Amino acid sequence: MSARYGMVIDLDRCIGCGSCMVACAAENNVPALQQATVRTGLTPIVVRTVSNGQEGAARRETFIPIMCMHCEHDTPCVKVCPQQAVEVDRATGIVMQMPQRCLGCRYCMTACPYHARYFNWWDPAWPAGMEKSLNPGIAVRMRGVVEKCNLCHARLHTAKEKAAAAAKREIDPTDYVPACVEACPTSAIHFGNLADANDPVAKESRSPEAFRLLARLGTEPKVYYKSKEAWVRDLAETNSAPRPEVKHG
Amino acid sequence: MSRNTLVFAFGVSFALCVGWIVFPRALYVQKRQPLTFLHKTHAEKSGIADCGECHTLRADGSFAGLPAMEKCTGCHSEKIGDSQAEATLVNNYIKPGTETPWLVYSRQPANVWFSHAIHVKLAGLACSECHSTYGESDQVRTYELNRISGYSRDIWGHSMSRLRRAPHEGMKMSDCESCHQRHQVEVGCLGCHE
Known about the structure:
The structure holds two protein chains of two kinds. Chain A has a four-stranded mixed β-sheet. In chain A, strands 3-2-11 form a three-stranded antiparallel β-sheet, with helices on one face. Chain A has a two-stranded antiparallel sheet with strand order 4-5. Chain A has one domain: Alpha-Beta Plaits. Chain A is built from seven helices and eleven strands. By secondary structure, chain A is α+β, with helices and mostly antiparallel strands. In chain B, 41% of the residues lie in helices and 4% in strands. Chain B has nine helices and two strands; from the N terminus they run αβαααααβααα. Chain B has a two-stranded antiparallel sheet. In chain B, helix 3 crosses helix 4. The longest helix of chain B is centred in the first third of the chain and has 25 residues, at 3-27. Chain B is globular. In chain B, 10% of the residues are buried. Chain A binds chain B through residues 87, 89-92, 94, 96, 98, 100-101, 137-140, 150, 153-154, 157-158, 160-167, 169, and chain B through 57-62, 110-111, 113, 115, 117-118, 121-122, 186-191, 193-194.
């Protein structure tokens, strides 16, 4: 049976520490460049802050990790790519970006409603010696291509290979967990197969507290958020929501 | 036949010769393996019958590739016979404890993910389906390095035209795809790329 991998991120548990961002960068060989800024750096997952727009005692803020939502239906980046460098994998539901096929037009970045895609402005580089810590399962991307979260597909490869060694076709779900999920100290990010009705994450995604960002666009994103706070849930659908501020430093 | 036609015919045949004979030769650098390792000798004299005895799969399914020097040391800690290759092996690699810098014929580009475990254990492919009968050969092939891409010639295959090539010749993406198509195994881009 084909899987539909997705996430539920419990915003009430997120403390904005950024561990997911660090784990993601380490797992996916994101270069550590001095010249990269908040706008030009690569952050396949980024923790932003949003507020209810009030001041004083009425002000409420929350952290919200943003990454590729792995849209299932009419995936905007897939529709616009002139190179067919993006596809929704039939077996896993992962929106797969192939940086080596990308010509760097950045149309997908414009099309993505979540700003979850990043452009490689520079040749990848690491401080001397740090290249030894690179993940051998992920190819380093070159300058001039777009990349994004591929749900740590190298870990899916490893899990598949492990299953094959035991002559099994189905992977053990505990073998495939993305780096951000693993790194989150408050276990705010839950990962699972949304197509499996008994999967705890699939159940969680159906809870009344769960919501998706811009679900009204009809792209069926597979990353869900969850909050007990009504104002947080409302922000997800509001056009006039305050532009998320990026936490500096 | 007019003079112009002759000049034209000569030009075309000259260009074809350059394209099909001179260029392929100039494109590849011929390299010799550091050691004259013979698969046939090992199969016959030491009774190694199965590729998997040296080219192992680890417990997690990852492929160990070429065996480490440790494996050779098992039999070759001292010289066996008087051949030149034996002396090179023992003096240059076994005694100093360094690995042999083999040139790997089938090494793929960095963005390719290939799992031997999946192809051998699940799909049941024989080694020879991709690697031909190299495991039975009694000579060391010349390693040919593509000057432009830096890849082994085995990736493209030895026929420049790629016409009438045997199934094991060539390890290009189109070769993977055609086999997947024949066996109706569908994988997405990241099924084989990383």
